[in-house]
């Protein structure tokens, strides 16, 4: 940290993991001291990569990818050209094992039960700087997860998995998920891309609308199966490889790249499959179900990206405030500034625990724990919904805490704010996630697993009965709201759902803060965060409050007042 003669501090970090003793203490507590010592080097490497990425990310954001449709002879090539700094970011992340660590046979043999915790935990430090590439990293891991779970014995799949986990850039195949289409968006059941067999080969035809990492080598795509029913049950899931068979990439037409608000370093395009050869992974009744495995993992990546961006924002603001002088004091000495920043740090820590509880539940579920599977089924959409909303709020507040110097592009915060706006949208909007959470409650009684997890966390908070009682009351309020909603007609249930989602998420955050406060190095910070968050049952969603039946008549006049003439 340095401050020039104009009283403008400049922030720079050598290693984002080293700058986070609270995070390090949490990961050590969760993983265990001996095993954490064995993987700590990977955390250090990703923390350094996140710091080194800062200027690279800024330039890659300004020099967005370009679509080269034709070569010098007029032949169609559909090639995406990236800035050299983006390729350096790939080497800093993929080359250091941000995906590959999760697929190393030796690591899996001994540490499968912390596979996702290590992968997401170390990746969190890279995501604090570069959210554009973190999306392809997410999808590369997601393709690997789906193939590993549903077609592990297939020779082509084994080859693909080896490429997805590669740390040598010449061997790496990046992944993608081509899911949405123009007419449906989140309503995937409206998809119309078709699959048909010819001579033992599956061929895909049709348009995909929002294809992130559009130049990926290994793509999972949904297509409508011959003779299948309408809706998602009629969709099959296919693996499309650009290099298998040779020339297959030439049948994937990229029409244009999206001019996006944020994550501009990563190419997102509109695509047409023109008799593109594909490998069937799951057919009628199975394709969409299997794709949800990638979707759920992507939602976790989204939640981790959210808490990573929030962490970088409070880190920047705190560092700036420790040096910037105003009204005769440093910012960090001013009461209102201190109070506002303490709120942001508390919110980020609570959201961090929420996101990584979902990660840890997935690890346990993958090892066969049924209670954790049900917990993850609910914790993933709750964490994704709440952290995505919170990231925008925290980055904006951190920018305000710094002032005008954070509003110019020399600061990382404008880019973070643009990047964060996609987080409540990608992989399911807040409404989609809320409906998914309610579906998990109805079909799998996932709220019971959530209640059990909260109960277990509070049972371990020995010696702090006052706070434990307060957290239990918050959990009961969320439970009571859910019970009350269950007695309402479906329309009113939907109107109540977002309020319940946030209350449930806050109740879990409070319980986790008390549970982790039992680890002595974390006690002070966790209890401080608890005290601030317990005062606010609602954090970031100014919706869903009040009696939905009483408020329903107010909808029409308000909505009609903004209807185009």
Model description:
The chain is built from 18 helices and 13 strands. It is an alpha+beta fold. Among the domains are: 175-287, Butyryl-CoA Dehydrogenase, subunit A, domain 2 (Beta Barrel); 446-547, no CATH class. Strands 5, 6, 7, 8, 9, 10 and 11 form a seven-stranded mixed beta sheet that branches. Helix 8 (287-321) runs parallel beside helix 10 (370-402), helix 9 (335-366) packs across helix 16 and helix 13 (446-459) runs parallel beside helix 15. 48% of the residues are buried.
SSE topology:
Elements: E1 2-3, E2 9-10, H1 21-31, H2 33-62, E3 66-70, E4 76-81, H3 84-93, H4 105-111, H5 115-127, H6 131-150, H7 155-164, E5 175-178, E6 194-198, E7 201-212, E8 218-224, E9 235-241, E10 252-257, E11 268-282, H8 287-321, E12 325-326, E13 329-330, H9 335-366, H10 370-402, H11 413-420, H12 430-444, H13 446-459, H14 465-486, H15 490-517, H16 523-533, H17 548-551, H18 555-560
Parallel strand pairs: 5-8
Antiparallel strand pairs: 1-2, 3-4, 6-7, 7-11, 8-9, 9-11, 10-11, 12-13
Helix pairs in contact: 1-2, 2-3, 2-5, 5-8, 5-9, 6-7, 6-8, 8-9, 8-10, 9-10, 9-15, 9-16, 10-11, 10-12, 10-13, 10-15, 12-15, 13-14, 13-15, 14-15, 15-16
Query: Percent helix among the residues?
Result: 40-55%
What kind of sheet is the major sheet? 7 strands, mixed
Structural class: alpha+beta
* CATH topology title of the domain at 175-287: Butyryl-CoA Dehydrogenase, subunit A, domain 2
> Which oligomeric state applies?
single chain
- Mass-distribution shape: globular
- Return the CATH class of the domain at 175-287: Mainly Beta
């Amino acid at each position: 940290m340095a401050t020039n003669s104009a009283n403008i501090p400049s922030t720079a970090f050598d290693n984002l993991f080293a700058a986070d003793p609270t995070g390090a203490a949490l990961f050590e507590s969760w993983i265990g001291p001996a095993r954490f010592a064995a993987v700590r080097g990977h955390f250090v490497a990703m923390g350094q990569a996140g710091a080194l990425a800062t200027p690279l990310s800024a330039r890659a954001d300004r020099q967005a990818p370009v679509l080269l449709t034709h070569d010098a002879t007029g032949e169609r090539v559909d090639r995406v050209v990236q800035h050299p700094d983006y390729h350096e970011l790939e080497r800093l992340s993929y080359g250091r094992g941000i995906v590959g660590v999760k697929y190393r046979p030796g690591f899996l043999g001994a540490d499968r039960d912390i596979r996702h915790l290590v992968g997401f935990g170390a990746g969190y430090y890279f995501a604090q700087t570069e959210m554009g590439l973190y999306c392809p990293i997410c999808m590369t891991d997601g393709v690997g997860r789906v193939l590993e779970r549903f077609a592990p014995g297939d020779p082509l799949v084994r080859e693909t998995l080896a490429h997805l986990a590669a740390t040598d850039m010449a061997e790496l195949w990046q992944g993608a998920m081509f899911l949405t289409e123009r007419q449906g968006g989140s309503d995937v059941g409206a998809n119309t891309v078709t699959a048909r067999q010819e001579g033992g080969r599956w061929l895909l035809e049709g348009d995909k609308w929002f294809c992130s990492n559009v130049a990926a080598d290994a793509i999972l795509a949904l297509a409508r199966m011959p003779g299948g029913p309408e809706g998602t049950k009629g969709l099959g899931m296919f693996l499309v490889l650009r290099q298998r068979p040779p020339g297959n990439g030439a049948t994937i037409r990229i029409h244009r790249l999206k001019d996006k608000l944020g994550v501009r370093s990563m190419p997102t395009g509109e695509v047409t499959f023109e008799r593109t050869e594909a490998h069937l992974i799951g057919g009628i009744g199975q394709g969409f179900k299997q794709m949800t495995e990638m979707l759920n993992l992507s939602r976790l990546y989204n939640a981790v990206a959210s808490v990573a961006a929030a962490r970088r924002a409070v880190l920047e603001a705190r560092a700036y405030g420790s040096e910037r002088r105003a009204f005769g004091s440093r910012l960090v000495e001013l009461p209102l500034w201190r109070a506002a920043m303490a709120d942001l740090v508390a919110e980020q820590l609570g959201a961090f625990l929420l996101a990584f509880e979902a990660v840890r539940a997935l690890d346990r579920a993958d090892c066969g724990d049924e209670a954790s599977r049900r917990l993850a089924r609910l914790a993933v959409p709750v964490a994704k919904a709440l952290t995505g909303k919170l990231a925008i709020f925290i980055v904006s507040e951190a920018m305000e805490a710094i002032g005008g110097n954070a509003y110019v592009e020399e600061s990382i915060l404008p880019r973070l704010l643009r990047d964060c706006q996609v987080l409540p949208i990608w992989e399911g909007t807040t409404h989609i996630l809320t409906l998914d959470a309610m579906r998990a409650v109805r079909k799998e009684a996932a709220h019971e697993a959530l209640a059990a997890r909260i109960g277990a966390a509070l049972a371990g908070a020995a010696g702090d009965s006052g706070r434990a009682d307060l957290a239990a009351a918050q959990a009961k309020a969320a439970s009571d709201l859910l019970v009350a909603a269950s007695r309402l007609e479906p329309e009113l249930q939907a109107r109540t759902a977002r309020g319940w989602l946030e209350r449930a998420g806050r109740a879990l955050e409070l319980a986790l803060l008390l549970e982790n406060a039992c680890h002595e190095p974390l006690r002070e910070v966790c209890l401080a965060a608890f005290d601030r968050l317990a005062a606010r049952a609602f954090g970031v969603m100014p919706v869903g409050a009040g009696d939905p039946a009483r408020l329903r008549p107010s909808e029409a006049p308000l909505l009609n007042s903004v209807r185009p003439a």
